[in-house]
Amino acid sequence: MGLCSRIANKVLSRKVTSHGQDSSYFLGWQEYEKNPFDPIHNPSGIIQMGLAENQLSFDLLESWIEENQESNWFRKQGGSVFRELALFQDYHGLPEFKKVLAEYMSEIRGNKVKFDVDKLVLTAGSTSANEILMFCLAEPGDAFLIPTPYYPGFDRDLKWRTGVEIIPIHTSSSNNFTITKPSLEEAFQRAQTLNLKVKGLFITNPLGTTLSPQELHLPLSFSLSHSLHIVSDEIYSATASSPTPSFTETLSRLLPDPLHPAWSRLHVVSSLSKDLGLPGFRIGVIYSHNAELVAAATKMFSFGLVSSQSQFLLSRILVDKGFIRGYARENRKRLGRRRGAMRAGLREAALHCLSGEAGLFCWVDMRGLLASATFEAEAELWRRMVMEFGVNVAPGSSCHCSEPGWFRVCLANVAEETLMVALRRIKAVVADSGIIRR
Questions:
Q1: Is 233 a catalytic residue?
Q2: Pick the catalytic residue: 142, 155, 233, 365?
Q3: Which residues are within 8 A (CB) of 21 and not within 5 positions of it... i.e. 6 or more apart?
Q4: What is the pLDDT of residues 253-288, one digit of tens each?
Q5: 285-323 burial, b if ≥16 CB within 10 A, otherwise e?
Q6: Annotated catalytic residue, options 167, 235, 324, 426
Q7: Of the given ranges (207-211, 289-293, 302-306, 320-324), which has the lowest mean pLDDT?
Q8: Cross-strand pairs, 198
Q9: Is 274 annotated in the active site?
Q10: What is the rounded average pLDDT of the residues 362-382?
Q11: Residue 140 pLDDT exceeds 90
Q12: 151 assigned to active site
């Protein structure tokens, strides 16, 4: 340990020195940042395929900005709003932005469900939304059940400052990593064995697959039977080939009475980071029918406000319904083509991925490249991919996958030419490793 680290450990709290970023997911990012790929200036650098970012339709947004760059960006009927935006803002958020955001959330779900603006809380991205929900719904030492594989950042986002524990619901490739009743019950019993009070079920999907209303019925009914909260992470809603059902829509089908107690235990998280490819704007959303939670989460929003300028600009974009509808259609087409190109390249490398039509990644089966069916062998393969072949991906172990040899490979954050380079490098990994086992 260096001198600076020893000094920091003496003057800082344990909380801030245990950030939880020692996962291979974050370590791969660090290696990429030391040696980033550039087709001209650093063609031997590391290609970042561990980042779930959507850059495929960024040109559409740039064109809209260019075409609408009048001199009145900070003007509306009645004069300039610059002073209004520059001074202190109410932590409820700008009413006009929340209105068009709620309409947008309905639009990308095919208008099958309507979002009430009074039940919507703004947050600084979905990271903040998830943490706020943990603060509101659980005490330190309480637990949430989460199906595996799950986003590695949850170990930081949900646990680091809140003290909430995560109990994984283990799934298997034998049924395409679908939640089963035995896996739910096993996770619940494990929490009880550890003397943890289970407060809720956190549903997320980092696999690029979608869940039908029938598949959602099991975790929903399980949560209802145990009086658990349900958090539905829906940040990839607009990345699917067609509008996907949300928990709100599913509940509306199963529970025709909106006064049913389950309504008050359902909480949806969304954002504009993946839908519109705008993670830098830090726009997240909590949506809930629980009035007490909405009030508490709104107060907590004061610790992570979204800038008034971001809200104002995005309200101008979202209110342009013709543009947003055209963007959503084109974005889905481009994502579909990119998924097709990724799968074709993987097939040429004798690899396949889990079938799915959503998200910004493929869940790739590389079990055949492992020297042994162990997580140690998976870690060695990942290290070689990053350090020797220059491709950073997320190993399944960082996502708490129960089977070694699966990798999450992102597909929408690089140019098509860079993707082709990455696929050639992955093919070289296969050729170098050999198909050792199936």
A1: yes
A2: 233
A3: 156
A4: 666 566 677 788 999 999 999 989 999 999 999 999
A5: bbbbbbeebbebbbebbeebbbebebbbbbbbbbeeeeb
A6: 235
A7: 207-211
A8: 143
A9: yes
A10: 96
A11: yes
A12: yes
Residue 296 in this model has a pLDDT that exceeds 70: yes
Tokens for 230? 């349900």
Q: Which two tokens stand for residue 131?
A: 């943490």
Which of 25, 104, 151, 327 is flagged as catalytic?
A: 151
Active-site option among 132, 274, 327, 365: 274
